[in-house]
Amino acid sequence: VTGGSSGIGKCIAIECYKQGAFITLIARDENKLLQTKKEIEKYSVNDKQVVLCISVDVSKDYEQVENVLKQAQEKLGPVDMLVNCAGTSVTGKFEDIEVNSFERLMAVNYLGSVYPSRAVIATMKERRMGRIVFVSSQAGQLGLFGYTAYSPTKFALRGLAEALQMEVKPYNVYVTVAYPPDTDTPGFAEESKTK
């Protein structure tokens, strides 16, 4: 689960763990990862379950993302389901948003899902099983006032998911897109400060 140390990613990790899954949490902040790991482990259903924490920025360097996911698979086995949940937001009118914010949001929200997906897709196809989940947003279905930097990144996930699904379906690999509304998360709380 990328973005697994807080918000929607953390909640998804908890729910999967409650079902007996082995979890790899991926996020930038190592302290938050370790804190989340302790919280998730309270929901263990058997003594064999593992929560592995990996501190990496999934939007910066594909080779680094690929390497850490290989290490995770060496420890826990192949990825059955990848949940791409890392994301960030900047709000404001188009002409008021710093130009580099557009690049940063595209890197985090789009490439931060492309890189992990690319790193696990070959193994999923070889095994003829797997699911890739992209957490988009309702802003990925409808452009919203004040979200000119954010909405396009979430629309990009939708396009990626639709195209990728056609490529991987013959291999029994499936792609899911979630479009949550505004959700009470730490990230949304930060975003709300700028509105």
UniProtKB/TrEMBL annotation:
- Report the record's Gene Ontology biological process terms: 3-keto-sphinganine metabolic process; sphingolipid biosynthetic process
Domain of life, per the record? Eukaryota
InterPro entries membership = KDSR-like (IPR045022), NAD(P)-bd_dom_sf (IPR036291), SDR_fam (IPR002347)
- Residue ranges of coiled coil: 26-75
Its annotated compartments are: Endoplasmic reticulum
Pathway(s) the chain acts in? Sphingolipid metabolism; Lipid metabolism; sphingolipid metabolism
What the entry lists under Pfam families is as follows: adh_short
What Gene Ontology terms describe what this protein does at the molecular function level?
3-dehydrosphinganine reductase activity
Entry GO terms, CC? endoplasmic reticulum membrane
The UniProt catalytic activity note for this protein reads: sphinganine + NADP(+) = 3-oxosphinganine + NADPH + H(+)
Kindly state which keywords UniProt assigns to this record, in alphabetical order: Coiled coil, Endoplasmic reticulum, Lipid metabolism, NADP, Oxidoreductase, Sphingolipid metabolism
- E.C. number, please? 1.1.1.102
Q: What enzyme class is recorded for this protein? A: oxidoreductase
Q: Which CDD domains match?
A: KDSR-like_SDR_c (cd08939)
Functional description taken from the UniProt entry: Catalyzes the reduction of 3'-oxosphinganine (3-ketodihydrosphingosine/KDS) to sphinganine (dihydrosphingosine/DHS), the second step of de novo sphingolipid biosynthesis.
**Similarity-based family:** Belongs to the short-chain dehydrogenases/reductases (SDR) family.
Q: What is this protein called?
A: 3-dehydrosphinganine reductase
Q: What is the lineage of its organism?
A: Eukaryota, Metazoa, Chordata, Craniata, Vertebrata
